[in-house]
Amino acid sequence: MERYPFFLLTLFFVVSSMVARTHCQKQTQALSQLYRNKMKGSSGINKGHFKPIHHINNSRVHPQEGMKEKDRIQMLPGQPRVSFEQYGGYVTVDKSAGRALYYYFVEAQHYSKESLPLLLWLNGGPGCSSLAYGAMEELGPFRVHSNGETLYKNRYSWNYAANVLFLESPAGVGFSYSNTTSDYIKSGDSKTAVDNYVFLLNWLERFPEYKKREFYIAGESYAGHYVPQLAHTILLHNKKANKTLINLKGILIGNAVINDETDNKGMYDYLESHALISDETAYGVKKYCNFSSDNSEISSECQAAIDEITKDTYYLDIYNIYAPLCHNSSLTLIPKKPSVANFDPCSDVYIYAYLNRADVQEAMHANVTKLDHDWEPCSEVISRWGDSPSTIIPILQELMANGLRVWIFSGDTDGRVPVTSTKYSIKKMKLPVKTKWHPWYLDGEVGGYTEVYKGDLTFATVRGAGHQVPSFQPKRALSLIKHFLAGTPLPDTSRYD
Ligand SMILES: *[C@@H]1O[C@H](CO)[C@@H](O)[C@H](O)[C@H]1NC(C)=O
Ligand SMILES: *[C@@H]1O[C@H](CO)[C@@H](O)[C@H](O)[C@H]1NC(C)=O
Ligand SMILES: *[C@@H]1O[C@H](CO)[C@@H](O)[C@H](O)[C@H]1NC(C)=O
Ligand SMILES: *[C@@H]1O[C@H](CO)[C@@H](O)[C@H](O)[C@H]1NC(C)=O
Ligand SMILES: *[C@@H]1O[C@H](CO)[C@@H](O)[C@H](O)[C@H]1NC(C)=O
Ligand SMILES: *[C@@H]1O[C@H](CO)[C@@H](O)[C@H](O)[C@H]1NC(C)=O
């Protein structure tokens, strides 16, 4: 299956990789393309600070009576029996444009689900689906067998810790759409934040029992933009209304795009320190490349170093440098023996087949308007991205100042938005250390390392995880989210984990 998304034009400022040729890993290909465009002065992407929309037209929130019941998913095709409820459907975010976002919601599998928080998960791209990645191959309750037809349970699903909401956003991603197709060339960070916010207001009308529930937002990669921007929008409108419209308590972002300059520098330093590129190439990058946000020129010396890096990493999964690749993207008649603990690098292929089945779409209440394109893990209809601030550090600082819990995690085998990038970005915030760097434990082993800063910010690595942390270290990821939601520090002893 050779499908190139719009993001995958010629690569010249980014590391590309083999796996981009299938559906695998398009999430970060999308990111690479965005970075490339942002470096070009001519792309017209606005890199200025995020500007929230202050006035949200009340007419965008509609009564939702009876819609929750209609969204209940009886059973997904090929699904094992479970004891929690699932819902899926559309929420209209702009009636006049005919724009609607698709969500998939799984209630907690826990005897006290009524008291467990509501957690929204967003994937990045921009343009990639939280159903493709988050729900079906990272933290959702099911994974798809290699036959593309049946599902098996993920025993480390995050719905053991929360009621989890997956949203395909913005319109043009996955099953989400707009009847005004010109919306697809007007996408960007600001519009995504507003649509996500309007989605939440309407969704809470549909599921009013969650209105007062503690609410958290989590996401990875380019959701390093979406999550803080949505949080900022929520706080702004709570303040304007002088009441808690949405009971937001905290955010969690992983392998997140935070600050272009440090993200870029950190990536090349990671490749060097992990013996993937030569000292000479690393020196060339340091000497000739300028990652400053207002630099739009790439010197030929810098380009030569980048070309070398592209060659060195071409046959690697740069999003998990020690992982195997997907060598055969055919479905199997008989499902391969599944293993949640050992992530199958061909998972994207199975998910693509599953979600494009008519019976699956019907069961999920998806694609009700019969869209003219396939469901894709990363959008092929969004063709322009209008705004993408070069940094979201000021928003993170504002969220902390407003008392939100802010956690930043990092799978330490990701080479694309690696742990070095995240450390440099956090360093830029100049926060004093509250709890010194120490290993955190799970099952008597080091789950990763953590440092807590005054302010309050928790940084945690997840050992042995690539870009999609819950895919590669599902048990450690579940432990991380439990501690985040409980607001408890990651354990500094192996005695009680
Ligand atoms: C709100 O939306 C309605 C319907 O789209 C429109 O008629 C009205 O002018 C809008 N109001 C404002 C203040 O933008
Ligand atoms: C988009 O158009 C289809 C076909 O006219 C209609 O059924 C659907 O309700 C529209 N979507 C929205 C969100 O208005
Ligand atoms: C906001 O609400 C609080 C209590 O509900 C009230 O005391 C306060 O005066 C309100 N502030 C504004 C600016 O309306
Ligand atoms: C990087 O580029 C920016 C913008 O063009 C420029 O102001 C800055 O001096 C450059 N930095 C270095 C180290 O050359
Ligand atoms: C790929 O897998 C399919 C299904 O298991 C198999 O029939 C086919 O022979 C394999 N192709 C290669 C090149 O290994
Ligand atoms: C929606 O359904 C149509 C008709 O069955 C199909 O051709 C299309 O691929 C589907 N699109 C999506 C996004 O699921």
Task: Report on this structure.
Residues 1-24 form the signal peptide. It is found in: Secreted. This is Carboxypeptidase. It is an enzyme of class 3 (hydrolase). Belongs to the peptidase S10 family. This protein has 497 residues and is α/β, with parallel strands linked by helices. The chain has a single domain (18-261, 321-486), classed as Alpha/Beta hydrolase fold, catalytic domain (Rossmann fold). The protein contains 14 helices and 14 strands. The protein has helices at 26-39, 67-71, 131-138, 189-206, 223-241, 260-273, 279-288, 300-313, 347-355, 358-363, 393-401, 419-428, 469-472, 474-486; strands at 72-73, 86-94, 99-106, 118-122, 142-144, 151-153, 163-168, 177-178, 215-220, 248-254, 405-411, 433-442, 445-453, 457-462. The strands form two sheets. Strands 1, 2, 3, 4, 7, 8, 9, 10, 11, 12, 13 and 14 form a twelve-stranded mixed beta sheet that branches. Strands 5-6 form a two-stranded antiparallel ribbon. α6 (260-273) packs across α12 (419-428) and α7 runs antiparallel to α8 (300-313). The longest helix has 19 residues, at 223-241. The protein starts with 25 loop residues before the first helix and ends in an 11-residue tail after the last helix. The structure holds 2-acetamido-2-deoxy-beta-D-glucopyranose (6 copies). One 2-acetamido-2-deoxy-beta-D-glucopyranose binds next to α10.
